[in-house]
Structures are given as C-alpha cells and as structure tokens.
Amino acid sequence: MDKQSLTAKTVMVIGGTKNIGYAIARRVATAGASVIIAGRDHASAEAAATELPDATSVRLDLDDEATIAEAAASIPTIDHIVITAAAHHNAAVTDLEQDRIVGAFHAKVIGPLLVAKHLTPKMAADGSLVLFSGVAAWRPAAPYSVMAITNGAVQFTTSALAKELAPIRVNAVSPGIIDSGTYDRMPADERESFFAQSARSTLAGRVGVLDDITEAVIWLLTAQFVSGETIHVEGGARHS
Ligand SMILES: NC(=O)c1ccc[n+]([C@@H]2O[C@H](COP(=O)([O-])OP(=O)(O)OC[C@H]3O[C@@H](n4cnc5c(N)ncnc54)[C@H](OP(=O)(O)O)[C@@H]3O)[C@@H](O)[C@H]2O)c1
To answer: How far apart are CA 10 and CA 12, in angstroms?
Structure first.
C-alpha cells in the first residue's frame, strides 16, 4: 500500500508555537498539509501560524480540559495531531513541588489523554496521534526523575491508546538532545559544553538537529502500518 500523503490533510500541532513543535508545523505545511497551531498562549499560536502558508491557530492548554473541549468544538474534522508539549520539573526528589509534578504529567500524559477524549471523535479513521517522549526515560539521572518518569509514561500511553483508538494510529517520538532552540537561553559556553558532552553520549557522535525529528514525525504520520510504537531519534544514546 502506498504511504499516505499529507496533501490536503489537517494536522494540529500542540506545542507548535516554538522549537521542535514549530519545526514540525513548518515541515508538515511544506508537505502540503493545513496546519492548526495549538498553544496555551493564543497570541503566540497566532503569530506562529501567520508565518506558515496554510495555517490557523487555536488556544489549547493541556492543563485545562475546558480549552481542549473548546478547541475540539471549533474544528469540524482533523487528520493528525502531534503533541510536543513539555513542562519539565527538574529538581532533586527532596525539592519536588506537587503542583509542578502534576504540571509535568499534564503536559505529557493527562493532557494528551484529554486530547484523545475530545479530538479523536473528529479524526479520520486513517488519522494518527504522535506524542513526545524523551531519552531521559531510558537514561535516568539526577535531578531529572520527573522528566524520566513522565517520558517513560508516554510510551505506555502510546501503547494503550493505540489499542483503544484503533484504527487511528498512535505513536511517539523519543528525542535525544536536540539543538532545537530550547537550549538557546543557556550561556553560549555552557551550551557548547552541554552539547559536546551530549554528543559523546551518542553513537552518532553529535546532538540532534530539527530535521532529525521532523523527518521521523513525517514518517510516522504517513506510515499506515505502524502503531503503538515509540521511535527513538537519539543517535543511539540508549546503546552508548
Ligand atoms: N529539545 C530536546 O533536546 C529534547 C530532548 C528530549 C525530549 N524532548 C521532547 O520533545 C518535545 C519538544 O521539545 P522542545 O525542545 O521543542 O520543547 P520546548 O522548547 O520546551 O517547547 C515545548 C512547547 O510545549 C508548550 N507547552 C508547554 N506546556 C503546555 C501546555 N500545558 N499546553 C499547551 N502547550 C504547552 C510550550 O508552549 P509555551 O510557549 O506556551 O511555553 C512550547 O510550545 C518535548 O516534549 C520534550 O520533552 C526534547
């Protein structure tokens, strides 16, 4: 069977306002899809959408079910949803704050479940969901336990939803360290040494770039015989 084309498909990217999410939005637009950028700050989502050829925006906060329901009510049909959101709480276990742990689970697990609840009834049978996990789940290190646990939970969420929502496909991407823009706020020398250290902990000998992730997402969106999988795009970091 031919791979599905993204031409004339509608793809929502939750977290599409910046970095990996925005790169995915741009890449699926290039592949001919109509894009809906969903973000908790509508002004940012709107600004991101104006940069793309065929894009609209909607307010959607994964912490707030009402906004997910409202976003679903405003959309007649949808083909694919990609959720890149993260709300990391990087702290030693002795310093953890309950609301920030809950926030981290909202972005990665609870919010995506509620997105499935409200939006999959609008989805085509040949549509798909792509969630985002991360290499921290497979390489736990202090003080990143919440990141490891939430990213690990994404793999089980992916598998359970793939079973329940079939024939809609559900997959996840688990990135390694990606020069995505998210580290731009670090001082340059600190970022350089973080990237050098991260590159050494891969088999590929480098950190990832946005194209590494966007190509994996495009493949998952169109690979009609793939469901329930977590695809590791991390240069072999789990094996190094
Ligand atoms: N970059 C890496 O090296 C790396 C490594 C491993 C895994 N990952 C995973 O890959 C994904 C994308 O990474 P990234 O670097 O692009 O992340 P990022 O820069 O932190 O961007 C995350 C996006 O999620 C949005 N978001 C956060 N909480 C939300 C909520 N409650 N509702 C709706 N949107 C929300 C943010 O919106 P605002 O603009 O409103 O904050 C932002 O657009 C994440 O899941 C991350 O854990 C990334």
So the answer is: 7
Atom number, ligand 1, closest to the C-alpha of residue 136 = 6
Atom of ligand 1 nearest to the CA of 16: 43
151 CA: nearest ligand 1 atom: 47
What residue's CA is closest to ligand 1, atom 24?
A: 85
pLDDT digits (tens, 9 = 90+) for 19-53: 999 999 999 999 999 999 999 999 999 999 999 99
Q: Is residue 67 part of a domain?
A: yes
Domain count of the fold of the chain: 1
Helices (H), 13-64: 19-30, 42-50
Evaluate whether residue 204 is within a structural domain: yes
Q: Is residue 18 situated within a structural domain? A: yes
Mutating to test ligand 1, I would choose from 20, 63, 212 the residue with most ligand atoms within 8 A of its C-beta, which is 20
Q: Identify any residues that bridge with 131 across adjacent strands, giving them in sequence order.
A: 172
Tell whether 131 is covered by a domain: yes
**pLDDT one-digit tens code per residue, 96-123:** 999 999 999 999 999 999 999 999 999 9
Of 192, 195, 212, 206, nearest to 237 by C-alpha is 206
Question: What are the tens digits of pLDDT across the range 159-205?
Answer: 999 999 999 999 999 999 999 999 999 999 999 999 999 999 999 99
Tell me the residue type at 70: E
Residue nearest to atom 47 of ligand 1 (CA): 86
